[in-house]
Amino acid sequence: MPTLILFRHGKSDWNADYASDHERPLTQRGREAARLMGRLLWQSGQLPDLAVSSTAVRARDTLRHAAQAGHWHCPTRIERALYETTAADTLAWVQALDENPDCLLLTGHEPTWSDLAGRLIGNATIRFPTGAMLRIDFAAPSWSAVGFGDGEMRWLATPKLLQKVKGRG
Fold it and tell me: How far, rounded to the nearest angstrom, does the alpha carbon of residue 13 sit from its chain's CA centroid?
C-alpha cells in the first residue's frame, strides 16, 4: 500500500543575493523547520523508503536538513521534474517511477503541492505552508496504479503547530 509524504520546502530568503528563483536559499527559520520535520518522521517511525527533491536550492537544503536531523537512511534523489511542475505532471512522474518504495517523500513547491494533495484525496482545498508535511495513503498495489481521488489523507503537520505542541510557540 503506497504512502506519499509531500514536504514543502522551508521558509526561503527573498532578501538573499541569488541569480534566479531556482537558487533562492533557506532562512535560518527554514533550516530549523526542516530539522524539526525530519525529527517528526523519525520519532513517529514513518521514515521514507525513498526521498526525492526538486532541484531548487531551498528544496534540496530542506531535504538535506530533514534527513540529517531525522536519521533517514533512505536513498535520496534530486529531480528537475519536481521544479515548476503541475499536479498532473507530478502524478505522471510518480506513476512512472522505476522504484516501488512503500513510502515515498517528495520535497517541492507551491502551488503544486496544495493542488496535488487536494486532487489526490478528492478535490479538497489544502493549505500548505512552508515546511509543512502531508501524508496520503493509497489502497493501490503500486505507484503506477495511483490516481487522483484515490488517496486518504492521514495527517498534515506544520512546523508552527509542532512548536506550539512542544510549548515553544
Answer: 19
